[in-house]
Automatic annotation (TrEMBL):
The keyword Transferase does not apply. Pfam families: MotA_ExbB. Residues 44-134 form the MotA/TolQ/ExbB proton channel domain. The chain crosses the membrane at residues 6-28, 56-80, 92-120. This is Biopolymer transport protein ExbB. Its main location: membrane. Keywords: Cell membrane, Membrane, Protein transport, Transmembrane, Transmembrane helix, Transport. The lineage of its organism: Bacteria, Pseudomonadati, Nitrospirota, Nitrospiria, Nitrospirales. It is a multi-pass membrane protein. The gene is exbB. Belongs to the exbB/tolQ family. GO terms for cellular component: plasma membrane. The keyword Membrane applies. It is found in: Cell membrane; Membrane.
Amino acid sequence: MDALKHLVDFGIIGLLIALSLWALAVAVERWLYYRRVSPTQFDDIQTMEMALTKRLVVIGTVAANAPYIGLLGTVMGIMLTFHTMGTSGTMAVGAIMVGLSLALKATAVGLLVAIPCVVLNNVLRRRVSELLTLYKVQHGS
């Protein structure tokens, strides 16, 4: 069962941290791109929209799935706690609290990853909308 504990601690939480860093890197790259892009450099609105929304799906996917990955860690942590209680044959409060804190830690990290990703996704998609509207105004569409 130590393997399960390490899987929750390092696997689930490590995965969530890696996903958050990936989403943050994409968000920074997209923001820097939006700062230097001009609607006049595109021939048509479809090409512009494809260029602007490139890789935004990464941020949205991380935002949508991070809570579920955290929930997986929660379920695994609770299973670990029940298994520990069942094999030891005692209801030691300390063992129960350690297991539940491990489970809740996974949930918290999942939410800490998802919430900023949702905000970043909304901010970047708003900027895409602004740039597309500027293109339409400049090109009379």
